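Blinded run. Sample ID left blank on purpose so nobody reads anything into the name before looking at the predicted structure. Input follows.
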Amino acid sequence: MPYPQARTEILIGAEGLARLRAARVLIAGLGGVGGYVAETLGRAGVGHLTLLDHDVISPSNLNRQLVALHSTLGRPKVEVMAERLRDIDPTLELTLIREFLRPEGAEALMTGLPLSPNPSPPRGAGSPSPYHFVADCIDSIACKAALVAACLGHEIPVISALGAGNCLDVSRVRVAQLNQTQMCPLARELRRSLRERGARLNYPVVYSDEPRRPPLPHQPVSGDTPGRPRAVNGVISYMPALFGVMLAGVIVQELLAAEGD
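Blinded prediction complete.
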């Protein structure tokens, strides 16, 4: 069988590749950003991935989401992503959680407990908690803040994707600490929510400092996603992908730089 990470090993060495293979990463949200995070980490050789998403693929996802094809419409994102990752590297260990992460479930997620009283059973080889890194690719501010606060409270490294919507300019995408961001409405909301939770703000995020174009007025929530009507952002194909690849790049570099367990 071909060795998927042969070129990676040339770059980071056998020891670096072994460190990635031993790493456990949670990707929370498999939309436009999270799908690219998952695939990039899987191709890089991160050996244990937990994929968390409750949603199914819809026609509105086709312009930007890695798993969105006409052949996959209506299927759970976690299952399609897992099939894709196993096709890339069958040795990957995957845990699939098809649930909506509510704020009250974030703490349980960090301690390896079920998110709900009757959870859907994970599929694949279990990834023990705590994680070595968490990629926050969630849209909901309340859920996002709860996840980040839980990670920080357990001293689990986390990086968040902020708003990729209503932007076009790739040169304005940055990696920074949350408390150093500018021009991003989602960053402002997240800072406020984390302050209310007593969480610190100096952790890494990927964001754009491009002035935003206005979204559509608030629209009813479609599908099974809980929540009230919300504004609908315009999104170009490449921007979530760029956010996701940058998130994954930060995670890989941090995992390589971290001292062993």
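Unblinding after everyone has recorded impressions. The chain has one domain: 6-257.
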